[in-house]
């Protein structure tokens, strides 16, 4: 974990660590996988699952028997916890619901906006070595609230050819019956273009590895996607009131995701910086994924010393972190200083895992500095908006001269003609 001055940090490209600048070879592989899936359909999915996951499948779709078996394999505490989290997530995302609206002007003019849900959505859930039932809740619940008609999950199988039982139970708790045992770029391609078994979707959401992220990039335009996610990241903005043990624990909570996870502590307190660094390595020894965390801290960990609070938040806004914790006295008073962050956690008792699992806001968040222009996943990601325009004969007559003038200015005489045809009494 490096300790840097704010000036030194700003001299660096603060996002360069988040991106692999040489994606050429990865893209060649991903594009070949996409092409094979488009050409060979299910056969490609079976072949890639055997090659990449070491599993020879007899069918792609999870059966009713597998769903039933999964419920017997999980404990009641998990089911109780998942239901409590589900309630919180639904409560938060219900506030995001949008309605169609219309307004009426004089002379027979009606304008408005009609909100309609997408018809079919695909959700990618990482799998294989790890299980992410929380991602099932975070991606499916907003789509359900938006009233998406069909939602399908894709996820890599375990070595036994089955989907992790916790993922299956979480899926059933949110009303999902369609799950395909396929992961990687091939799963993204199947959702984007369809196969004999997998039906084409309108949008693909959910986190994944580098292959999944690049595949989403390449199918975008043929389908919609939520975002192109990079490695996870956390930034803690702290003053000398922050307990070093809390700060260190929260930095480690994200460092365990990936060797490329990015961790930042931004503070004007040199003493806090030194104490957190010591605490990081003390806690590290007792944690299971310490090799991953050590690598992440070594390569992508930064403690940045600032002159004052204003510079602290200037740095925070430059980073535009996925997760931002404000561990300062009167933390909520600092909100006006924050311009760029995916999710903001205020105070010492609002650790990042609270948002990952339980509080209610979505944990699918913009990474790699994209919080400067992107938002967390929400209900709004699963709806479309159509403009509504209705003019009466009289209202169109009144506006006709202006429309014709603008059309002629742009040299679009057929546009003007569409108005002339209606203004001509013979055609009225």
Short description:
With 428 residues, the protein is of the alpha/beta class. The chain has helices spanning 6-11, 24-40, 42-53, 64-73, 76-94, 133-145, 165-173, 184-193, 210-219, 244-255, 270-284, 290-300, 309-319, 352-357, 393-409, 413-423, and strands at residues 2-5, 101-105, 109-117, 120-124, 150-154, 178-180, 203-205, 224-225, 233-238, 262-267, 301-305, 323-327, 343-346, 383-391.
Overall pLDDT: 94
Order of helices and strands: EHHHHHEEEHEHEHEHEEHEHHEHEEHEHH
Radius of gyration: 26 Å
Count of discrete structural domains: 3
Distance between the termini: 76 Å
Oligomeric status: single chain
Share of β-strand residues = 15-25%
Helix content bin: 40-55%
Count the helices. How many? 16
Just name the CATH architecture of the largest domain: 3-Layer(aba) Sandwich
Number of strands: 14
Name the CATH superfamily classification of the largest domain: Nitrogenase molybdenum iron protein domain
**Gross morphology:** globular
SSE class: alpha/beta
What characterizes the major β-sheet? 6 strands, parallel
Low-confidence stretches: 14-19
Order of strands, main sheet, comes to 1-11-10-9-12-13
CATH fold annotation of the largest domain: Rossmann fold
Pathway: Amino-acid biosynthesis; L-histidine biosynthesis; L-histidine from 5-phospho-alpha-D-ribose 1-diphosphate: step 9/9
Cofactor: Zn(2+)
Keywords: Amino-acid biosynthesis, Histidine biosynthesis, Metal-binding, NAD, Oxidoreductase, Zinc
GO molecular function: histidinol dehydrogenase activity
